[in-house]
Amino acid sequence: MRIPRQRGLRPHAAPVVVLVPEERPSLTSRAAWAVGRWLWRHRTVWAPSGIAVGVFAAVAAVHVIAPWMVWVLAATTLTPAAGLWWCRRKYPEVFAQRPARLAALAALATAALGWAAGTVHFGPLTVPLAWVWLLLTATAQVFWLVVRRSH
After folding, report:
1. CA-CA distance, 42 to 141, in Å (whole number)?
2. Of 81, 100, 91, which Cα lies nearest the Cα of 143?
């Protein structure tokens, strides 16, 4: 690193040079970087789990900030079933291609919305709802991996 010539110094004086030794990263920072690089390389594979963690945090915040949202979430719980019915009526050819996959997706979305409504009402630290969240996260992750491999 070279520092520009300072005022008041003699014109032929040697330039001031500052040496900064490189600091070795700690073991914790190296481990954090390694985990971060691994997660970044595999980000599409683990997308449902990351989204589930974000949704868990958002639902916890909604529980504290706006507990009345339980009524909105409870009302939207039946939306996936209605969407499945509408898809079956409007686009029977699409529904005929993969009926089990669409039904499983609708069931998973209904369960997730029901979990969100229950968590907003009872709180995110309720043990049965935490187990439901874990089960839904694992199911969504497996569903995601199966669907990605089948394409």
Report:
1. 13
2. 100
53, 46 contact by CB (below 8 A): no
- 3-state SS string for 54-114: HHHHHHHHHHHHCCCHHHHHHHHCCHHHHHHHHHHHHCHHHHHHCHHHHHHHHHHHHHHHH
Residue with tokens 């979305």: 109
pLDDT along the chain (151 residues), means of 10: 62 70 90 94 91 96 95 94 92 86 92 96 94 95 88 65
Strand, coil or helix: 8: coil
Place of tokens 């600091």: 23
Which structure tokens are listed for 91? 């686009």
The answer for residues whose C-beta is within 8 angstroms of residue 70's C-beta and 6 or more apart is 117, 120, 121
> What's the rounded Cα separation, in Å, for the pair 77 and 92?
23
